[in-house]
Amino acid sequence: VITVLGALRAEDSKYSDPDTAPVDVSKPAPPEVIHPISDKRLPAAFRFSDKLISGAAPDTDDAFEALQELGVKTIISVDGDFPDEERAEKYGMKYVHLPIPYKEVPKERALELAKAVRDLPGPIFMHCACGKLRSPAAAGVVSVILGSFTKADAWNALVQAKGPGNYVRMYQSTQEFDKVDPALLDNLHPQFKAKADVARITTKMDEMYKPWARIDEARRLGWIIPEARKDLKVEDDILKIIDISIEIGKWPEMRKTDAMIKMRAENETELAKFLQTWRKAAGDDRPKELTKSFFQMTKSCDTCHDEYRNK
Ligand code: HEC
Questions:
Q1: Phi and psi of 122, rounded to 5°?
Q2: Cα(193)–Cα(151) distance, rounded to whole angstroms?
């Protein structure tokens, strides 16, 4: 099974084997409908049109400089996390926050996104967290609504952006839109805010994701953290995730069914095991053991996501 968190790093996640995906979205290779932007500062970036680029969340000054070089004026986030409005402003860009879930592009939101892309100053940079699922799905749907893409193009664009194949519902969702009469968008008057109202559970999940992503960086460094990356504090980050997990474990949003309660408890067990492994691991086996335990823990995050977030 692919994991979202794994899919964020699809190129080297052991969960990202496309052969295990329930829909084979990769074969035969679709025609190229979007154009990759080869710039290390902008991972997963693709040009959908002269006005619209999609990619991963820009979270460094380097990324913003790259956007500036592309002339970007407006950034649209479809991610749940709150945008870095101040940094965007520093680079002369405006943020619009129109989050979508992992399972689909909601109908109303799709029209708001299309209106934003059509009417706000461009070029526009649209992003989710990893740039592989929500943003390319949304950008494809917007392109269909505005008449520059066929439905097949929207599907193929998502394949090209490496949208993981187990997000079946998101793929289907891209096929549920048609070109609209421009007057329909003219009559729409959404509020384009830099920070949308987001459910507390989404915010907490993003708070868990940040330490998770830092631990993943430590994994990529082979768990041996160089002097220059002393900001990566694995133990602190595991403890942060555990704290949040315990806090939200009491919320009704996390206790919808017995199965969900059990999944969360298992996630907490895996977190505790990973903490133990981190504390004990030593010598040559350290990287191997830790990676295994980290993936195991991540898999238990995604067991719940597969059931309660992605479909
Ligand atoms: C028991 C269930 C459960 C577990 C365990 C769980 N999550 Fe989630 N997670 C959810 C649900 C439900 C959502 C969707 C929330 C929403 O409606 O936006 C979600 C959403 C997310 C999101 C997306 C937030 C956004 O901006 O849209 C991230 C990132 C995330 N989880 C990270 C994690 C990490 C990291 C772990 C493990 C350390 C984890 N989750 C464990 C249930 C869970």
A1: -110, 180
A2: 29
Place of tokens 């981190």: 278
Q: How far is the CA of 219 from the centre of ligand 1 (A)?
A: 21
Ligand 1 in reach of 239 Cβ (< 6 A): no
Closest CA to 156 of 27, 6, 38, 51: 27
Pairwise CA distance, residues 249 & 201, whole Å = 11
pLDDT tens column, 57-70? 998 999 999 999 99
φ and ψ at residue 43, rounded to 5 degrees: -65, 150
CA 265 to chain centre: 24
User: Which is more confident, 236 or 17?
Assistant: 236
CB 127 within 8 A of CB 72: no
Kindly state the greatest CA–CA separation across the chain. Answer: 66
| CA dist 295 → 59, 66, 279 (Å) | 24, 32, 17
Tokens found for residue 60: 């460094």
Mean pLDDT, the chain, as a whole number? Answer: 89
Residue nearest to atom 22 of ligand 1 (CA): 205
Long-range contacts of 43-47 (CB under 8 A, 24+ apart): 43/130, 43/131, 44/130, 44/131, 44/132, 44/161, 44/162, 45/131, 46/136, 46/139, 46/157, 46/160, 46/161
Residue 3 has pLDDT above 80, yes or no: no
Averaged pLDDT, 217-235: 91
176 lines ligand 1 (CB under 6 A): no
Query: Which residue in 264, 297, 260 sits closest to 278, CA to CA?
Result: 297
Gap between the Cα atoms of 31 and 157, Å rounded: 9
* Torsion 226-227-228-230 (CA) sign: positive
